[in-house]
Amino acid sequence: MEIIISHQRTDFDGLAAMVAAKKLHPEAVMVFSGKTTNNVKRYMSLYKDRITVKKPSDIDYKQINRIIMVDTRVAARIGPFSDLVEENDVDVLIYDHHLGRNNPIQNAEEIIEPVGATSTMLVDKIYSQGIDMTSFEATLFALGIYEDTGCLIYESTTSEDARAVGYLLDQGANLEIVEEYIEYSLNRKQQELFNKLLDSIHQISIKGYEIDIFQAEMEEYIPDVSLLAHKLNELHDADALFVLAKYNQKLLIVGRSNDDSINVGETLKYFGGGGHNRAASATIKTSDEWELIEWQEKVLQVVKEKINPAILVEDIMSTPVETITPDTTMREADQMMLRHGHSGLVVEKDNEIVGIISRRDIDKVRNYDLLHAPVKGYMRREVVTIEPNASLKEVQEAIVEHDIGRLPVVTAEGELIGIVTRSDLLKLFYGTDDYLKNRQNLYGRSLVQVQEKRYDISDKLELIDEQLLALLKKAGRMADSLDFDLYIVGGFPRDLVLGQVNHDLDLVVEGDGIEFARELSKELGGHLDIYHEFGTAVVSLEDLKLDIATTRVEYYPQVASLPEVEHGSIQQDLFRRDFTINALAIQLNQASFGQLVDYFSGKKDLEKGLIRLLHNFSLYDDPTRIFRGFRFASRYDYNFEENTEDLFKHAIELDVIEKLSSDRLFNKLELGLKDRNPVRFISLLDEYNILSYFSPGIEWNHETEILENNVTKVLDWLHDLEIVTSFEEWVLYLIVLVHGLNETEIKDFANKFNINKNLFDRLMTSLKADKYIRILHDAEDNSAIYYLLQGLAIEDMLFLLIKDFSLEEEIKLYLEKLQWTDIEVSGEEIIALGYSPGPIFREVLDEVRKAKLNGEVETYEEEKEYLEQLLAERESE
Ligand code: CTP
C-alpha cells in the first residue's frame, strides 16, 4: 500500500501538494500525519466529500510499503510515520521545495526544486504528464501556491510559481475561493496603513445589509491594499466593505462582499474599475477638490443603487422534500435515496421533524447488516433547520459549525417547505458544470471524474475485416441521415483498444434506436426483431447480429432487481455501466467515424490494467458484476483499483450474492470457467470467499490449484492426439473444483443448480477417480484397460489424467486405438457351427474381443479359428 502524507499542521501547500501527488500516484491513499491549520480545517469541513484524506488510525501500518512525502523532508515533522520512513522495506519518495540538508531520510528518493511552493512543482508535473484537473483542484493548487508565496510576493517566489498560477487560472481556478481561505502577513508599512484604516471605520446599514467603509490618505504608494481589505474583512463581520486609499492624485477603492446581494464588481464598474461579485477594485484620478469623505458618500450612494435582492435559501432549496417516518427501515430509506438521487431524508412524525438520516448513516450500518432496522435508531435527532429567507452565508455557517450536509428549510410557522444541501452551495460556488460532474447521482456516489476525451482509433479499426468495416460505415451514414448519433459500445471498443477483435456488436443510438434499426434492416436486409418493452432491436444478417439500443439511463429500484429505464445521453448510457473499461464508445457517424469517446478515463485504465467501478452502488444494483469483475481481472490479468476492491469486499460481506437466483449464480460460474483464465477466476472466487455460495464443502487448496493448472496441460495433450472428441472444456475445471465433495454434497450441488444428467454423472464419476487410477495402474493387458475405460466419458478419462498424468500411455492407447477395436466374427459364425443362440454367444465373443485387444488375434481367420477353439473347449468341459 502506498500513502501520501505531508507535515503536521498541514497548511494549504501541504494539502494541495497531497492532492496533486495523488493525481500523479492515483493508487496511493492520502493520510493526514497530524492536525491541520485552522484554515485548512475550515476548508476540509466544507469539502471533505471531495477530498478523501484518512487518519493514521484508519491505516494498517504493516501494509505500507511506500510513503510519498510532500512539502517536507523531515522525519520529525510527520508524526506517527517518522519511524516508518526509516525502515528498509518502505520506499520513500519526497516532493519538496525546502532546501537545506538537516537529517535527511536514509535511502529516500528526493525531488526537491527551489520554487516558492511544493504545489508548483507538482502542478508542473501534472501538466507535463498531460493529466487533467477540475476547476476545484485548480483552485486548491492555486491556494497552495498563493499561501506559500504570500500571493506571489515573497522573495522565494519564482517565475515557475507565477506560470503555475497562470496555468491554474486557465484550468478554472476560482480566486474568490482562494481569497476566502488565504492568510497573509503584512510588512511594516502595510501594518501602519492597516491601523489607520481600522481607526477610520464607518459602519452603515443599507437595505438591511451591513456595510463597512474604511479610508486613509497615504504618503506614498503602498502595494497590496487589497490584502488589507481582506484582513479587514476577516476582522469585521459586515456583508460588504470598501477601502478607500488616496495617494498623490489617485484614489484606490477596493471592495469586498460576503453576500451575493452586494455585487462589488458592479459597484466599482461605476468608477471605471472591475472584478468579481465578491472582490473588485477601481483606481480613479482625482483632483483635490473632493475630500475622501465625499468619495465615501459617492461610493455608498452607488452601493445603494446596486444592491440586488439577495439570493435566499428559498431560491436554491430543493422542494418538495421527501420525508419518511421514524419506523421506515434503513433499507427502504436507502432505496428511496437511490431512487431519487438524494443523499439524505427528513424524518417526520405527525408533521413534525424528528430527525434526519443521511447516506453516510446508512453506509455505516451496512457493515453490520442492520438495514432492516428502523431509521429512528440511527437518525440524527438534533436537526438544525433554516428559514427560507436566510442568506447563503448563514447556510454555509450552519453547515460548517454543525458539520452537517443538509438543512431542512422551515417557515416561521414551522412548516417544512424544502431542503438545502452542501451540494447546493457547491453548485453556486463552482457553477453547474462542475457540480453536475460530482453530484450524487442515481447510482450513488460517482467514483470517477467525468471528462470527455476523444481519441482517433481508426488505425485500430483496420484490424476488423473489410466487410464489417464497410457495414459500420454504412450504419454511420444511416444514422447521419436520421440525424442520430451512433456508437458501438461494450466489449467491442474495449477489446479494440487492446488490439483484439470482439464480435459482439452492441450499437447505441442517441435518438430512436428502434427507428434506426428499422431503417438499417431495410437497407441491409436480414431479419429484424424489435423488443418494444426494452426499446431495443436486433438485426440479424447472414453471419452476424447487430444489437441496437437507444441510449438510456437505468436505475435499480431494489438490489438485484431489473432496472427501470429512461432515455438519456450517451454519457449517461455509458455511466450506467459496470467498469470504466466497459464504458467506452466508438462513434460511427461519418464525420466522427472511428473516434473513441472516453468520459471516465477507461482507456487509461485499460493501459494500466485496472478494473474500476463507475459508481459505488454498482454491485448492489447488479451483483453479477462481481463475477464480471473477476472474469475481466482473470481474462486480461488486471487488478482491481483500490476503491473498487473495497467495494467488492463490502458488497460480498453484505451478502449481495445471496440475491442472485441459483440459475444465474451457476451461469456466472460457467462463464468464468469458459473464459480465458479459469484458474485465476477460481482463485479470485476463493480470495473473495465466494466458493461457499456454490457448496460449503468446496475448498481451494494447494492440491486443487495444481489440479486446475493440470487441466491446461491435459487439454494441450489431447489436442496433440489425432482424434476427434466433443466435450465442453469448462466442465473439466468444474469437476476439479467440486471433486473434493462427498456424494451427498455433490447431490446437493446438483439439485441446487439444477445441473443436467450428463454433468451430474461426470461429477459422480469423479468420486471414483482414485479407484480407477489404481485399477489402471494394475491393468495387466489392453483388455483390462479397455473394459475399465469403455464405461467412461471423455471428461472422466481426462480427469484421471489431470490427477495422474503418468497414465498418459494407457489413455492414449485407449483413445487412439482400443476404443475403435471391433471383432469381425459375430453370432452368425457361431450359428453356422451349429449352435443355437444363448448366453454362451456373448461369453465367447467377449473372449475373442479380449484376444484381439491384447493382440493375440488380428485377422478374420484368426478370430474365427480362436472362436472355434473356444467353443470346442466349452464343449469338452
Ligand atoms: N454491462 C454492464 N453490467 C452488466 C453487464 C453488462 O454494465 N452486468 C455493460 C458493459 O458496458 C458491457 C456491455 O454492457 O461492456 C455489454 O455486455 P456484455 O456483452 O455482456 O459483456 P462484454 O463487456 O462485451 O464482455 P464479454 O467480452 O465477456 O462478452
Automatic annotation (TrEMBL):
Residues 317-375, 379-435 form the CBS domain. Its EC number is 2.7.7.72, 3.1.3.-, 3.1.4.-. SUPFAM superfamilies: CBS-domain pair (SSF54631), DHH phosphoesterases (SSF64182), Nucleotidyltransferase (SSF81301), Poly A polymerase C-terminal region-like (SSF81891). It comes from the Bacteria. Its cofactor is Mg(2+). It holds the Pfam family CBS. Signal peptide: none annotated. Residues 850-877 form a coiled coil. SMART domains: CBS. Gene3D superfamilies: 3.10.310.30, Beta Polymerase, domain 2, CBS-domain, cca-adding enzyme, domain 2, inorganic pyrophosphatase (n-terminal core). Keywords: CBS domain, Coiled coil, Hydrolase, Magnesium, Metal-binding, Nucleotide-binding, Nucleotidyltransferase, RNA-binding, Transferase, tRNA processing, tRNA-binding. One of its GO terms (biological process) is tRNA processing. One of its GO terms (molecular function) is nucleotide binding. Belongs to the tRNA nucleotidyltransferase/poly(A) polymerase family. This is tRNA nucleotidyltransferase (CCA-adding enzyme). It comes from Halanaerobacter jeridensis.
